[in-house]
Amino acid sequence: MMARSLSWIISILLHTVFAVVLSYGVHYPDLPLEKLMEVELTRVLPQEDIVVVKTPLPPPPSPVQEQKQASDSPQVAQALPENETIVLDDAPPPPLAPPSQSIPVEPEQPQAAPDFEPISSVKVAEDEKLQPQVSQPVADASSVEDAVNRIDVRKGDTIVHRGHEARFGRALMADYYSYSSTEFSGQFKTQDDRTITIIDARDTEYGRFLIYDSKHKTLRRLKEFGKYVYTIGPSVYADEPIIGTVTFLAKNDRIERFILTSDDDRMAHYPRKVHIREQEVQLPTNHGIRTAYVSMPPYGDGQPGVVLVQGNRCVQPGLVQGVTRALSSNNLCALSFQPRQCTGDVERKDTDAEIVEDIRAAVAHFPSLARVDTSRVGLWGHGQGVPLAIRAVRAGGALQPAFLVCMLNENVNVDEMPTKAVLNELSMPVMWFFSGSEVGRWNDFVDTLEALRDSAGKEFTIVMAPMRKKGKAAEVLGSNAAWVENVAEDHIRVVASWIEGRSR
């Protein structure tokens, strides 16, 4: 009995091995994908032959071209001159002085147009002549509908049959990764040190994300086309005609870069986001704990720090975040806070005295909230926050700001500025930055600053930056224009170079 059972088992095993070997040796014909996916095709086009056109190799670069490519590498921004008056205008830069030892360059000779033959996208036999198409009468309305809805697919084209897989993958990734629209705003850098800035201005009169290009000096609006696709309008107030697109790309759980196509460039660009370190902190003040926000450069510690003073007026958080991110992109730590009435903490409006005390508390506690250089913490007054920043400096105390930045724009009246005697009390370096379309109204005040600098030895650096007449930022109007202008016109980069220059 045991021998019979063993023989049955051996027989089954041998038959199984034989069946497996036989299955591997038999060739099964491939089933058409059209039948597998049950896609109805009314006509199948024959597979087209691919015509390969050999492109001639470019000539080796000349020494002059190699020297030019080496000079195109990004350079470190030079420090802004101190204790001078600088005017930023649209005048072209002066011509470069001829080098002492220049490489002789042969003049370009006009070249004749090369002879070429048009290459058709479809290979046609020489003996085959294309005959003019003659319209055929349509039998009935159903034939017309079938002709319109007909889909022609080349034989062997499997992409069209895999739409269900793409839809499934897209739905799966959309459920797994969900990105907030606030991730879209920030600074994006290209390989040639070009900065593309996305400003969140949705809750303002603009009603959209804004995109600024540092190369072309263009400021335009974005309109949502899909979840991650936006179209670029011709200005900050128009969505059409569409002159480009922005497609955001993610990596894991954050937006990493986007694809930029526009009429300004002949090719697409892929700027990578500068991931600023941001966190919400609790700032102790004499009037209780208040919420503040700290932004830091992507890497490193010990950078200069600025306390952003916006005044006693509510500003859309997206615009303030655009400025703080621009500051951190230029190697500065920034601390900002909104007035209490803007956050819903209290129903009453903060007084100027309370804001001044909160500013001084922010300067004192900034080193404990972020890893900044304690010897390089200053105040950054913006618009209506400039008078309050000056009051915070004059309040005295053990810990004084290392420097003061006064960004004056059209939201500030000249009569709100301090007198000459008060300005004479400022013992720290001060950057006076005047911007807007009417900087001429500050001429008398600038004369006072220059007199104190020349006679009393005050460390006043003055920059006059009238709004560009032909620049795209000139189209920005409204109460929030100054916040957008400072980011769009690279004002922050100019002031950041002055701050960095003082620490060298």
What does this protein look like?
By secondary structure, the chain is an alpha/beta fold. Among the domains are: 185-273, Beta Barrel (Lipocalin), CATH 2.40.128; 277-502, Rossmann fold (3-Layer(aba) Sandwich). The chain contains 13 helices and 19 strands. The strands form three sheets. A nine-stranded mixed β-sheet has the order 2-19-18-17-16-14-15-13-12, sandwiched between helices. Helix 9 links the parallel strand 16 and strand 17. Helix 6 (317-329) runs parallel beside helix 12 and helix 8 (352-369) crosses helix 9 (385-394). Residues 63-76, 92-108, 110-139, 157-162 and 470-474 have low confidence and may be disordered.
Quickly list its features:
Rossmann fold, 19 strands, Lipocalin, elongated, alpha/beta, AB_hydrolase_fold, 13 helices, 504 residues, single chain, 28% helix, eight-stranded antiparallel sheet
Question: In a nutshell, what does this entry contain?
Answer:
This protein is an alpha/beta fold and 504 residues long.
Largest sheet: 9 strands, mixed
State the low-pLDDT regions, or none. Answer: 63-76, 92-108, 110-139, 157-162, 470-474
Distance from N terminus to C terminus (CA atoms, Å) equals 98 Å
CATH fold-level assignment of the domain at 277-502: Rossmann fold
Assess the beta-strand content as a share of residues.
Answer: 15-25%
User: What is the count of DSSP helices, taking H or I runs of 4+ residues?
Assistant: 13
The CATH homologous superfamily of the domain at 277-502: Alpha/Beta hydrolase fold, catalytic domain
Helicity, in percent? Answer: 25-40%
Q: What is the global morphology?
A: elongated
Total number of strands: 19
How are the strands of the biggest sheet laid out side by side?
Answer: 2-19-18-17-16-14-15-13-12
Rounded mean pLDDT is 75
What class, by secondary structure content? alpha/beta
Query: What CATH first level of the domain at 277-502 would be assigned?
Result: Alpha Beta
Q: What is the radius of gyration computed over CA atoms, rounded to a whole number of angstroms?
A: 33 Å
Which second-level CATH architecture of the domain at 277-502 applies? 3-Layer(aba) Sandwich
